[in-house]
Amino acid sequence: DGGITQSPKYLFRKEGQNVTLSCEQNLNHDAMYWYRQDPGQGLRLIYYSQIVNDFQKGDIAEGYSVSREKKESFPLTVTSAQKNPTAFYLCASSISRTSYEQYFGPGTRLTVT
Amino acid sequence: GESVGLHLPTLSVQEGDNSIINCAYSNSASDYFIWYKQESGKGPQFIIDIRSNMDKRQGQRVTVLLNKTVKHLSLQIAATQPGDSAVYFCAENMSRDDKIIFGKGTRLHILP
């Protein structure tokens, strides 16, 4: 089955630690995205990538980093510089950078204490 | 499930009735408008889209209406079923942009 996967579903970390969230897609999509979702605030764009080895900051990139070494993978690192990292993180992909139909993974719930 | 909508507006609808979910957008330059459905604990799922030069578009059991004069978008779900219970997000996109902008969402609650 084609799709987009995120792991793990739940992740717990101590404050001050960096943590990397996994996102993999086998849809052969060029574009990939990371969103953060908080209660009552919808989805906010963290980073996006239109093609391998290229990525751009979204609206709330501070405290996060990404890489796009392979077409199918777009991991997100939540660094210790992120002031409020506890959130639900969603990865998405689309066939091209101009496509507005995005396919979402199941999300990772990160809790930092 | 995920507590993604603790403070979202909620629409309660009797099973079998029609649902109308509304959304106001701000950017008159947007070219596409999209509706996504997010069930508890899952990622959003694309439902239907409408281009800015259209007023209405129908899908299976869903209809999207666009009123550019008042910058208003609505999603109508016919004969609402328990499986329609979810948070619904409207989103907008400019064709020259690489991003889509999501609204805050509305929770649809189905009454038995």
Taken in chain order, the helices and strands of chain A follow as: EEEEEEEEEEE
Shape of chain B: globular
Oligomer: heterodimer
Low-confidence stretches of chain B: 1-6
Pair of chains with the largest interface and how many residues each contributes: A-B, 30 and 27 residues
Helix count of chain B, per DSSP? 0
Structural class of chain B: mainly beta
How much helix, percentage-wise, in residues of chain A? under 10%
Mean pLDDT of chain B: 89
The global form of chain A is: globular
Percent range for β-strand residues of chain B: over 45%
How large a portion of the residues of chain A is in β-strands, by DSSP E?
A: over 45%
Poorly predicted runs of chain A are none
Largest sheet of chain A: 7 strands, mixed
- Broad structural category of chain A: mainly beta
Helix content of chain B: under 10%
Number of strands of chain B: 10
Structure in a nutshell:
The complex is a heterodimer of chains A (113) and B (112). By secondary structure, chain A is an all-beta fold. Chain A contains no helices and eleven strands.
